[in-house]
Write a structure and sequence with these properties.
This protein is mainly alpha-helical. The protein contains 8 helices and no strands.
């Protein structure tokens, strides 16, 4: 087996198919970067969820849980760097020229990202409930804090990216764009507020 065969590179590298015609090279290649970043993010996210599902299912001892949570947090931190790459490498005016081509498709539709936020919240609830003795998990607080901080930071960086790309324009699916995302962050913070005593909240908007 070769390197290419093992990674199925032929199939993998055939999946980047911009909707912008090839003869509009500048916009076509900008859209290709947009697709590459999102595909890579979904792939890495699947790894983070593999680790977090393993923890949540109770298949780990303490050392295993800490290792997997740490790895998941590092993956999410890497995902944030993908957003920074887009902001620094894709011109907003180019994004506007291909944005309408993908219709109502939106990153908000990512089932994996929704699961990431949900499972992180559930792990925090179970950790706060008292660990193994009360049906919780064997997961160190420091690892959970890092994981939650990484997901919150990703949300904020995503908001900044959308601000950069859209400004005051409507969001995909006729949402209010930046204001819509900001409200979702605030709502998520309120829903995920949990501490050791069940009453400690995260900073507003995080």
């Amino acid at each position: 087996m070769t390197y290419s065969q093992y990674l199925r590179l032929k199939q993998l590298l055939s999946l980047q198919q911009p909707l912008t015609p090839r003869d509009d090279r500048e916009i076509h290649d900008g859209e290709r970067l947009f697709i590459v970043v999102h595909q890579a993010s979904e792939t890495l996210l699947s790894q983070a969820l593999t680790d977090l599902r393993h923890i949540e299912a109770g298949l780990c001892d303490s050392a295993c849980s800490d290792h997997r949570a740490n790895r998941a947090a590092r993956v999410v931190e890497t995902l944030e760097s993908h957003l920074v790459l887009l902001r620094n490498s894709l011109k907003p005016e180019h994004f506007q020229l291909f944005r309408d081509r993908f219709g109502t498709a939106s990153g908000l539709q990512s089932k994996q990202f929704h699961e990431l936020f949900e499972i992180t919240h559930r792990l925090a609830q179970r950790r706060a409930a008292g660990g193994v003795e009360s049906g919780g998990i064997e997961l160190a607080e420091r690892e959970l804090v890092r994981l939650r901080a990484a997901t919150r930071s990703w949300r904020y960086t995503h908001l900044k990216l959308v601000e950069h790309m859209l400004g005051d324009l409507e969001g995909t699916g006729e949402t209010s764009g930046v204001d819509y995302l900001r409200r979702r962050i605030d709502e998520a913070a309120a829903e995920s507020a949990v501490g050791d005593d069940g009453g400690t909240t995260e900073p507003p908007g995080c």
